[in-house]
Amino acid sequence: MRKWMLLLMCSLLLLGTALAEEPSYELPLDIDFANYPADPAGFTEDAYHDESLDVRLETGSLRGVQYHVAYFQVKSPTQLRTAIAGRPNESVAALPSQMGKAKNAVLILNGEYYIQRTKDIFIYRQGKMFRDQPDPVKDVLIIDDAGDFHIYTSRDKAAEIQAFQDEGGVIVNAFSFGPALMIDGERIPYREDYYFYPYERTGRSAVGQVGPLSYAFIYCPQATQKEIGDIAEALNLQQAYNLDGGNSSVMIFNGKYVGGKKRNTEREQSDILYVVSAVAPD
User: Fold this and answer.
1) pLDDT digits (tens, 9 = 90+) for 26-42
2) Which residue of 91, 116, 173, 187 is surrounded by the most CB atoms within 10 Å?
3) What's phi and psi for 52, nearest 5 deg?
4) Which candidate, 132, 137, 59, 107, places its Cα nearest to that of 215?
5) What angle do CA 268, 269, 271 make, to 5 degrees?
6) Cis bond before residue 179 (omega within 30° of 0)
7) Under a CB-based contact definition with an 8 Å cutoff, are residues 55 and 47 in contact?
8) Own/partner pairs for 20-25, CB < 8 Å, 24+ apart?
9) What residues are paired with 184 via a beta bridge?
10) Bigger pLDDT: 264 or 208?
11) What is the per-residue pLDDT for 21?
């Protein structure tokens, strides 16, 4: 009996030690957190890998429209983050490359340039509310604390968002640009009355969710709003959401512009989305 108990205690001790050694990839939500630097050895020309993060870049064409997509899988939802150029709601802009470098970003996508709009906007960044008045027309994207996307398109978004929170939903990041491109694997019909020059062939950016903790950034050098939505559908994204475009549209991987963008064409902006490693340096 004593031998059996001793074996059991040893087994429990070994199990506890193994659990204690399981790495944690959780990063602070604090928007001022500088993040861990990526491993230089983890980069190739079009990919990055470490124990917390996988990134893969691809280039394609759909009906003559060129696109660049960066797929990435993270171990923690805290690795998909946002940054701003100044303080919350401050009218300050900076180059996305500079904002991302300051945050040790592996991958960067432009945000929505939220400071250009001063009313009817619902904005959260890294768990902090900046604005709380959803526009009846503009679609809203919420990224929750599990890293899942929720997109609201009705005219009564305030009630839908409140219901989400009443049910225990936690908002980490929220955007008020749009339009929605994909919701639950279904293509959202193109809306001719939506904002932001839908017919113009210009730079376009979108963010999408593939599955749990699996995402995609899309950058099109020249596309209409409908065309980038068609690309999101062709890529089989479950959720997809259009972000700021034109000269604001930019994707940066390992400090290099994706898709032919150059430093002299990079536009200062108020905010970015970015992805980081969660491996703490030795």
Assistant:
1) 999 999 999 999 999 99
2) 173
3) -110, -10
4) 107
5) 145
6) yes
7) yes
8) 23/51, 23/279, 25/52, 25/74, 25/75, 25/76, 25/78, 25/79, 25/278, 25/279
9) none
10) 208
11) 59
pLDDT tens for residues 112-129?
Answer: 999 998 788 999 999 999
Tokens 């709003």, residue located = 225
Position 3: which residue type? K
pLDDT digits (tens, 9 = 90+) for 202-258: 999 999 999 999 999 999 999 999 999 999 999 999 999 999 999 999 999 999 999
- Alpha carbon of 135 to those of 152, 162, 164, 176: distances in Å? 11, 15, 17, 8
Type of residue at 252: I
pLDDT for position 22: 66
SS3 per-residue string spanning the chain = CHHHHHHHHHHHHHHHHHHHHCCCCCCCCCCCCCCCCCCHHHECCCEEEECCEEEEEEEEEECCEEEEEEEEEECCHHHEEEEECCCCCCCCCECHHHHHHHCCCCEEEECCCHHHCCCCCEEEECCEEEEECCCCCCCEEEEECCCCEEEECCCCHHHHHHHHHHCCCCEEEEECCCCEEEECCEECCCCCCCCCCCCCCEEEEEEEEEECCEEEEEEEEEECHHHHHHHHHHCCCCEEEECCCHHHCCEEECCEECCCCCHHHCCCECEEEEECCCCCCC
What are the φ/ψ torsions at residue 179 (nearest 5 degrees)? Answer: -85, 170
How confident is the model over 170-185, as a mean pLDDT? 97
Both tokens of 223, joined, read 């596309």
Domain ranges of the chain: 2-275
How far lies 272's CA from each of 18, 63, 189, 236, in Å?
38, 29, 27, 24
Q: What's the Cα-to-Cα distance from 279 to each of 27, 139, 145, 275, rounded to whole Å?
A: 10, 35, 20, 13
Residue 184 in tokens: 């639950």
